[in-house]
Design a protein that fits this description.
Layout: E1 24-31, E2 35-42, E3 51-52, E4 57-62
Antiparallel strand pairs: 1-2, 1-4, 2-3
Length: 71
Amino acid sequence: LSPKFGGQGGGEKDPWPVPEGEHITQVQFRSGKRIDSIGFVTNKGTRSPQYGGGGGSYSMLEFPEGYRIVG
């Protein structure tokens, strides 16, 4: 887990294991000055919980076929 940054809200959340045989193809987030929430979608449409609040504007990054998030 990374250190907590930003305001006083939030707390520790359970990790979301990517289901076997799937990989993340989208990162969905809400942000203004900072990222307020983040969630993930797999190649089979499985969605993670949305981690964070509802502030800011919605954005989405979609990764082309053949690209992967690693680390």
